[in-house]
Amino acid sequence: MALLETKRLTKSFGALTAVNGVSLAVEAGSLHSIIGPNGAGKTTLFNLLTGTFPPTSGQILFDQNDITGTPASRVAHLGLARSYQRTTVFPAFSLFDNVWVAAFATGKSWKGLLHKKTSDYAEVTGRARQALQDVGLEQKSTQLARQLSHGEQRQLELAIALAAAPRVLLLDEPAAGLSPEETRRMVALVRALKGRYTMVLIEHKMDIIMSVSDRISVMHFGSLIAEGTPAEIQKNADVRRAYLGGVAA
Amino acid sequence: MKKPFLLILISIFLLPLVVRPAIASEIWIFAIFGLGANLLLGYTGLLSFGQSTFFGSAAYVAGWMMKVHGINAFLALVAGIGVGALSAAAVGYLCVQRSGLYFIMLTFALNQLFYFTAYQWTSVTGGEDGMPGVPRPALAGIDFKDPLIYYAFVSLLFLLALFLMKRITESPLGKILQAIRENEVRAEAVGYNVPRFKLLAFVVGGAFSGLAGVLYAMLFGIVPLEAISFVFSGNVVFATLIGGSGSLYGPVIGSFVFIWLSESMSTVWARWPLLLGVAFVLVVMFLRGGLVEAWTRFWTWRSSKQRD
């Protein structure tokens, strides 16, 4: 059953149609990758799914409910969490505070918002610690985010998304700018999370995509040109053309 | 963090021995004003150039009610806090729709709107002459006419305000506001309605400004037009930056330095604001965390020296 679905989703910025009639179905518990050349509209699709801006037309269904046009701060509460291609953390916060503030947002109750101490929320604190542990940063929880290496910041980026205990995890190029060694670690991390979350992954590195995905959708100039298992996609002629520089037929 | 609190307590007791009680009271009143402004500036990262809107409105309304309707001090404080919060809700609602430079200009423009309303509405506010004749009504049989008793009253309310602000900054709200300061996009994405939280910061900060406004009116027995002017809005930002924005005690130290300097220097040297200008440039260039940072730097330097 599809947990996250789009129906003819379109987004235009003036004359440019960044996302063009995309219909996508992400099965519950699967890892669904979206690939495509630069400027194919992958990140715009993520921005639509998470309510950063509303689509021009089309629908987004989450767990059979129409969530089209729901603003970003509400989408998070529905159980969709995302990470960013460009690291988007809270630089002056400790790692623990980074994940704590994300965990609190989706906590059961905001009672005591103005007067309780942050340490009074045991459930939130537990979830925050778990998120740091999941990405392997628990040893550095008191360090400031801005003091981390780029690789560690990418791990924190992921931990902030995990802290919300989402149902669907949208990862926008988690391995962007990582060294081969760091990339290996990130792939292992994504693989470890597979099964625990329904995941949508944008990535450029083909070896990652082919080794972790259950299904792959290929975007080109805003449209979906192919969808299938990794093996099917590798054989697809349209996909090869899109990647090797030709215009898709 | 017991040390700063102890220092403040000592200062409260020693201050009236050094300066006139009126100036001593003004320092703590301005500190309350600064606590509210710092919630926006230091914690949420919003530079509001319109804090005197809430300070002045509260001073006028509560002052008028004491003067004309003879309400007691307690009701006046409640009215002032209410007016401060309400005016901040109205102004904040408009301002949080925009960010960056537009946000700053909106706070400033709305401040001017309130200023010129007060300037024109002479039958109530007295316009340029200010609104004189604000009494200092008694509360529960305590007569505040004695400047030292009033000073004790102000000090007590300041400590209460400080305690409340400490709780707020250590609460989830404090964390969320700082998260907005650090990264608005991410704060929104993890599930916080950023404009609404900014508005909340305005309202809470406005309530503190309102309290300060009433105490100010009662202290001097007059609401000068300045109390709602952009100069006053600038002063509180200035004092907060000098003391150290983003830390709880920053605006307290800033207000201490600012009021003391302005009161003691203005009689000696008419061009004293020059000094403030120099201090401001130094802080912005070398000491972004203000005097609080200077203090912590000094102590880490000393402890490293002792270790050698």
Structure characteristics:
heterodimer, A: 249 residues, alpha/beta, Rossmann fold, 4-stranded antiparallel sheet, 9 helices, 25% strand, B: 308 residues, mainly alpha, ABC transporter involved in vitamin B12 uptake, BtuC, 14 helices, 78% helix
Count of distinct strands of chain A? 10
Largest interface: A-B, 36 and 23 residues
Shape of chain A: globular
Based on CA inertia axes, which overall geometry of chain B fits?
globular
Mean pLDDT of chain B: 89
SSE ordering of chain B: HHHHHHEHHHHEHHHH
Sheet having the most strands of chain A:
6 strands, mixed
* Overall residue-averaged pLDDT value of chain A: 89
Overall CATH class of chain B:
Mainly Alpha
Total tally of structural domains of chain B: 1
Using only C-alpha atoms, the radius of gyration of chain A works out to 18 Å
CATH hierarchy: architecture of the largest domain in chain A: 3-Layer(aba) Sandwich
Organism (chain A): Vineibacter terrae
Pfam families (chain A): ABC_tran, BCA_ABC_TP_C
Domain ABC transporter (chain A): 4-246
GO molecular function (chain A): ATP binding; ATP hydrolysis activity
Q: How would you concisely characterize the structure shown here?
A:
The complex is a heterodimer of chains A (249) and B (308). Chain A is an alpha/beta fold.
What does this structure look like?
- The complex is a heterodimer of chains A (249) and B (308).
- With 249 residues, chain A is of the alpha/beta class.
- Chain A has helices spanning 42-49, 72-78, 95-105, 122-135, 150-163, 180-193, 206-212, 230-235, 237-243, and strands at 2-13, 16-27, 31-35, 57-62, 65-66, 80-82, 168-172, 198-202, 215-220, 223-228.
- In chain A, helix 3 (95-105) crosses helix 4 and helix 4 runs antiparallel to helix 5 (150-163).
- Chain B is an all-alpha fold.
- Chain B has one domain: Orthogonal Bundle (ABC transporter involved in vitamin B12 uptake, BtuC), CATH 1.10.3470.
- Chain B contains 14 helices and 2 strands.
- In chain B, helix 3 (52-68) runs antiparallel to helix 4 (73-95) and helix 4 (73-95) crosses helix 5 (100-120).
- Chain B is globular and about 60 Å long.
- The model of chain B has no long low-confidence stretch (mean pLDDT 89).
- At the A-B interface, helix 2 and helix 3 of A face helix 7, helix 8 and helix 9 of B.
- Chain A: It holds the Pfam family BCA_ABC_TP_C.
- Chain A: Residues 4-246 form the ABC transporter domain.
- Chain A: GO terms for molecular function: ATP binding; ATP hydrolysis activity.
